[in-house]
Amino acid sequence: MSRIAVIGAGAWGTALAIVLGRKGTHQIQLWANETEVIESILKRRMNERFLPGFVLSESIAATGDLHAALNSAEIVVSVMPSQHCRPLFERMAPSLHKEMLFVSCTKGIEDGTLLRMTEVIADVLRKNNFNPALAALSGPSFAKEVARGDPTAVTVASLSGKVANAVQHAFNDSRFRVYTNDDVIGVELGGALKNIIAIAAGVCDGLGLGHNSVAALITRGLAEMARLVVACGGRLDTMAGLAGLGDLVLTCTGDLSRNRSVGVELGKGRKLSDIIADMRGAVAEGVLTTRAAVGLAHKKKVEMPITEQMFAILENGKPPQQAIEELMSRAAKSEFSSHLK
User: Fold this and answer.
1) Each residue of 300-319: pLDDT tens digit?
2) Is the dihedral of CA 232, 235, 237, 241 positive or negative?
3) Is 23 annotated as catalytic?
4) Domains defined for the chain, CATH in brackets
């Protein structure tokens, strides 16, 4: 039996623990920050706060003790909200060692540093004198459907083929298909940036716009995602895969998307603070990522008009209808450009 620590017991972390638990070959320690989540899992085998209705196997233990969760772990699965990644890994560092494999399943960019999540993890652990074996897992995967056992395909990216294959072997089963990829930049940025476009898609729905608008938004959103990915050193073909187009379409069109749901409410005229308050601790990563994405685009001198407008809506309260009118009235240009600018 291999030992796996899943750090973060929100809906996504719990769903991944369920995937790992049903294989029957892992012992899983699921770390939660919320006492009610730990008690719910220990007493009723269910995360009633974040993923109600799904029973966790007996191979999954819940704990609020980071050291206990990490003790003897061979794989550490990082599933905390992006803003908690650095402080949590700083707390975890004394319990970590170089033989561990680290799998980041958080889709975000750190505000301020503009680092991807694997870069944040590496930055923390290098200060503790070792270079971690890192991978990033991403793709179209609503937590509820993963927990239910709906056929799902994702990709795991690592600069090490050995690490990618090990993570693939740990997660892959007949209902959760894992592909490997060596484009960590593309996989991580694709997973982070699509959340911003998904909020914009929700805004369209909240404003009562039709399928034409959403189709245009998804297509042009993918184009600006691809521009930034390539400028940062990622590959264009990754954006045509699971971590790019696949995750973008799911998050922009699926009713289970928290990011899209935030956009719907914004389109209806609600204030962002009120929308977030109603989410009961659940996280829409696109809200957290937009500022960092704009900063990264400016750093790389990449034009991202949809992301810029979403930043104005989220940060400055710009009326969504005005943002759409400005996008539609931009100077006419060619659809494709060989230099991706």
Assistant:
1) 999 999 999 999 999 999 99
2) negative
3) no
4) 2-182 (3.40.50.720), 185-328 (1.10.1040.10)
